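Recall that a protein's primary structure is simply its ordered list of amino acids. Everything else, from secondary elements to tertiary packing, is in principle encoded there. The following example makes that idea concrete.
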Amino acid sequence: MGDNTLLVATLTGATAILASWVTSKGSARAAQVQADAARATQQSERTRASRRTAYADVIHSFHAIGEGFRDIMPAVAVADAAERTAALRALQERQAQQHAAMMRAAHVAHLEGPDEVARAARRMEDASTRVYLAIGAMADEAAIYSPEFDEGYREFWQALDDFVAVAREALGAVQPDVSQE
């Protein structure tokens, strides 16, 4: 009987040690999973904040360009052709400066991604360039009307609407990746 007591005591002790080891491994794994989830959540929050800032800068700079379009009507209303050309050139110069700021913001949006946002930013760049060139053509001809400007104007605002929709979707898609490797 004495031998069985020793055997039972040994098995009980071994079982306790094994249970303790399994519990500590499980706790360590749970802590690792929790740490990975926290890291992924923080990374997705940083990515979302960075993208949101980049997208907002693009939208803001695009609006600054668009606000300058209010000046087209007074410029083309100038009766003297030379003065009209000068007014259109001044408008084009302001547009060039604002376009450069928008391009810098758009390049950051390209880097932030995703690809859909980069393509939408590219369409914004193209639309802004088209309007800029139309204003230059109007200045070259001292024109009071330009179908190219009108079409570029519509394209410009549509490009902004498209960018906002794609950016909003991209921001909503930023989720933490807590998958296990």
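The mean pLDDT is 88. The radius of gyration is 31 Å.
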